[in-house]
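Internal ticket - ligand job 222, 3-iodo-tyrosine:
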Amino acid sequence: MALPPRTEPHVAFIPKQPPEVAAQEFYEIIRRRRSVRMFAERPVSEETIRWCLAAAGTAPSGANKQPWRFVAVSDPALKRQIREGAEAEEREFYERRATPEWLADLAPLGTDANKEFLEIAPWLIVVFKLMKTDPDPTGEQGQVYYVNESVGIACGMLLCALHHAGLVTLTHTPSPMKFLAEILGRPEHERPYLLIPVGYPGEPCLVPAITRKPMSEIMEFR
Ligand code: IYR
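stdout (structure tokens):
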């Protein structure tokens, strides 16, 4: 291509930083995400939650069926009901259901059946997976594919979006989670998948002193 004559000095335009730099920068951001159980009461705007959910909703999914619903709860009465439901399941878990090995594995985290954070965190995002598509105007419902993979990816993207927004999260899985569908009056084809308390970190905000596996242990190149 013939270049136009230039009178001013020019330098090469570099459109984007090299991938090596961008990749490492993202790592430095995301490695600071921690599962948090100590939230501040400080409110988070609905708009913030909306944009983060919009980001999650761009996730890839089987045949693009987008088999997810995100129910964002800030109503104190609903949060109380969710806490009560979760604590009932957790008491069962800690007192009966958990194996000794499981309890030993959890000991370093210092968790117990008390889930006060479910009332303190300004938002509880309850993620549902869709076992069928939403009904069309005639009531027909279609198939969905790779639902756990799709919703899991969307949740990962949601955690990234919330972290990027400066918020903290917990991936909470009181099990079984049927009580969430009942409290929130969800239709038959929606199944609870994950409960994500969201907010600002409490003061103090203590997290367990965990370590992550070294890179060499989690990856292999061939
Ligand atoms: N759901 C319980 C127990 C629990 C289980 C796992 I696996 C964790 O990583 C953390 C907690 C609770 O939330 O206390």
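Auto-summary: The chain has one domain: 37-218. The beta strands are 68-73, 123-130, 168-169, 190-199.
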